[in-house]
Design brief:
about 240 residues, alpha+beta, OB fold (Dihydrolipoamide Acetyltransferase, E2P), Arc Repressor Mutant, subunit A, 2 domains, 5-stranded mixed β-barrel, 3-stranded antiparallel β-sheet, 12 strands, about 30% helix, disordered N terminus
């Protein structure tokens, strides 16, 4: 499920793997405050983590050193530094984009933590920075941020994930049972399904299309091994133990 956001792509579909249950593809449009208030593990929206973000902000300062160019960026929500590293071994590939101080620029990059202890702050490692010459792009970015928020919420509801990162109660319940959030939503779907023979594998797959069939099988098998669910009428129908 992709949603076009200007020149980038917002994709709330989880690219699932054994150790990456809520890693998402695509670029998440944000305001600078979203970055500053993000958790240590990275930018998260409704339970899905994003490796790449994009924002439009004013360039307040540019500081160049032999190893990097640092841009002090500001929008109406916050300020932060964004760094573009210089490849010293390939100087011919270090064409620094022309951006003007006190003008808008679009940045695409990844969020990093800088400093230690109380001096720890958020910064962005720049993949791409470009001058914004049209005021329409500034307005478009604000709409992209809102679109990402509402589409992310819509997709999370379909996936059975409530709240940004899941509610504390849901996370605590999942942790107490030794389940991941993905396992927890499948477990609840099995538990709350009203049927004498339980919910079928096909119904679970239709309910959670963002979970691949292989991953769904793994989730169910693990819960069967843990004694939380069991097969009923056949190997493709499931009921909860309690």
């Amino acid at each position: 499920m992709n949603f076009s956001t200007g020149s980038d792509t917002f994709n709330p579909r989880s690219a699932r793997g054994a150790n990456d249950e809520h890693k998402s593809e695509g670029v998440l449009p944000v305001m600078l405050r979203h970055i500053q208030e993000s958790p240590e593990e990275g930018i998260e929206l409704f339970g899905y983590q994003y490796a790449t973000v994009t924002f439009v902000a004013i360039v307040r300062q540019i500081v160049q050193t032999p190893t990097k160019v640092t841009y002090r960026m500001e929008d109406h929500t916050a300020q932060l530094d964004a760094h573009r590293w210089i490849d010293e071994e390939h100087p011919d590939q270090n064409d620094i984009p022309v951006v003007r101080i006190n003008s808008y620029a679009r940045v695409v990059g990844s969020v990093r933590n800088e400093g230690k202890g109380s001096d720890r702050v958020k910064a962005v490692m720049i993949f791409k920075i470009s001058q914004v010459d049209s005021p329409n792009e500034i307005t478009t970015h604000l709409l992209e941020v809102l679109n990402a928020r509402y589409k992310g919420e819509e997709y999370a509801k379909k996936a059975g994930i409530s709240g940004i990162g899941g509610s504390r109660e849901e996370i605590a319940e999942a942790n107490s049972m030794g389940l991941s959030r993905a396992q927890m939503v499948v477990y609840k779907a099995i538990k709350h399904h009203i049927s004498d023979i339980g919910i079928s594998r096909e119904e679970l797959q239709a309910k959670f299309p963002h979970i691949s069939p292989t991953e769904m099988t793994r989730i169910i098998d693990e819960m069967i091994q843990e004694g939380l669910v069991y097969t009923s009428a056949d190997v493709d129908h499931f009921l909860c133990v309690t």
